[in-house]
Specification:
By secondary structure, the protein is an all-beta fold. The chain has one domain: Jelly Rolls. The protein is built from no helices and eleven strands. It is globular.
């Protein structure tokens, strides 16, 4: 899906890591929530309360999932899932355009 129709967009940006990661929240009538954002190259650690699916629309990164010592390469057009109540690490190699979906278990 290349666009979202009939949604509410929160104007205030979510800004993390001194502006190196930013996003905007998109709310759907169904109650679904997504964020659309940009990550600049760097190393980041994130925590999540809800299960997340992160779709990489452009760029390249490595992700280390909870409980793992291994890194997995993710490139444009791929996505990955992170369990609720967990932390994950990213190494962003090039500017990444992303869409993150927050899911109820």
């Amino acid at each position: 899906m290349s666009q979202f129709d009939q949604v509410t967009v929160i104007k205030e940006a979510n800004v993390y890591f001194e502006g190196k990661v930013t996003s905007r929240t998109v709310l759907f009538a169904s109650g679904e929530k997504k964020t659309l954002g940009i990550m600049l190259p760097g190393e980041y650690a994130f925590g999540t309360a809800k299960k997340e699916i992160m779709e990489i629309l452009a760029g390249e990164l490595d992700v280390r999932f909870p409980g793992s010592d291994n890194w997995e390469k993710i490139v444009s057009g791929q996505s990955f899932e992170v369990p609720a109540q967990s932390k994950f690490d990213l190494v962003v190699h090039s500017v990444c355009d992303y869409c993150c979906s927050y899911l109820d278990d």
